[in-house]
Amino acid sequence: MTSSTVTSKCLCGQITVSVPQAALNKTDSVGLCYCKNCRQTGGCLASYNLYLSEKDVTIEGQPKIYEDKNTDNGTKLQRAFCGNCGSPICLKNPKLAGLMAVRLGMFDELPKPGMVLYCKSRPNWIKPIDGVQENETMPVMTEEFKVWLRTIGVSI
After folding, report:
1. CATH no. for residue 12?
2. In this protein, which residues make up the domain named CENP-V/GFA (predicted)?
3. Is the pLDDT of residue 2 over 70?
4. Domain count, the chain
5. Closest CA to 120 of 134, 131, 133
6. Which backbone phi and psi does 6 adopt, to 5 degrees?
7. Which of 33, 40, 97, 108 is the most exposed place for a label (fewest CB within 10 A)?
8. What is the DSSP letter of 45?
9. pLDDT digits (tens, 9 = 90+) for 90-146
10. pTM of the predicted model over 0.85
11. Which residues contact 75 (CB under 8 A, 6 or more apart)?
C-alpha cells in the first residue's frame, strides 16, 4: 500500500489491515449493520464497516475464518477474526465476489456512515442518523446498487 493508506491492527497486534485513505473519505462506502449475526460476532450494537473492493485491502497475518451459515437468505458469509484476541477483521459474501466489509472499529479514524443495514433489528432507543440511507434488511439489488458495486470493483 502507498502513503495514502490507513493502517490499523487488531487488539493484540497479530493482524494488520491497510485500506486506502480515499475509501474512508467516501461516506457511501461506510455503513452500520444491526443484524443479529453482526451484533453477536462483534459483541456490540452493530457492526461498523467499510465496503470496498477486496483488491484495495491488505491484510497481514492470518485471520481465522468462521463460515456463518445462519443468515436470512441462506448465504454463507465468511467472517474473519483474529484467532488470538478475537477482534473482528472483515467479512466476505461469495455472492458479491470482490466485495469486502472491513471492520472499522480497529481504526482511529471513524467516518460517519452513509448507510445502515437491518434497521428492523436496531433497538428502538437508537435514533436514525440524519442524512443516512436506511435499509430494513439488505439493500435490494437495484440498478443503482449494481452501479455502486461496479464502481468499487465488485463483480455481479
Report:
1. 3.90.1590.10
2. 6-130
3. no
4. 1
5. 134
6. -115, 135
7. 108
8. S
9. 999 988 888 999 999 999 999 999 999 999 999 999 999 999 999 998 877 778 777
10. yes
11. 93, 94, 95
